[in-house]
Amino acid sequence: MPINFSVIVPDIPFMLQGVLVTLEFTLLSLVFGFILGTLLSIIKISKFAPLRWFGIAYTSVFRGTPLLVQLGLVFYATPQLTGYDIPALQAGVITFSLNSAAYVSETIRAGILAVDKGQREAALSLGVPYRKMMADIILPQAVKNILPALVNEGIALLKDSTLVSTIAASDLLRRADVVMGQRFVYFEPLIFIAGIYYVLVMILTWFGRALERRLRRSDRA
Model pTM? Predict the structure, then answer.
């Protein structure tokens, strides 16, 4: 069959609605993953051994098991274990946030350790509480140093969001699947949503670079 994009023109508004679902899922997972990852990174550098062991074990489990298996456990096992019929989008956000936190925590931990120890010692010598020191001095510098890695994590989340189509979340790929089943064409819907994903990734990349340039200008000012 020849390539004919006009076949899917009536379905374009339907597929575009998946952009909102994809963005909602990605942004929520990114925010919750960053918050949890930050807490986890602080736990990993804690002097309290049980907390540190928990952080290491958490990271090991979520980095050592497939994301798709984790998603299946949250979506299918939650109703069995708790009786709660968890929505697909909610299951996806929970899974991706927990998984992302494991990777983000390692990135942030490396950023924290890269900050000059002299600043930490100076803050402590001035009587700055540990919590305030981390929030106002160490973490802001660490985030500046690891911003490119955080942007890459956001891009990875955006692309991996296609996995939620396996649990019937109405994202871009799921809607393309519906169109393929109705129109019996495959190339056109897949190329169309691939283009959308590419544009979204480019926007996220541009935003990350613009933020990085702004932070550099603020450092020179």
Answer: 0.86
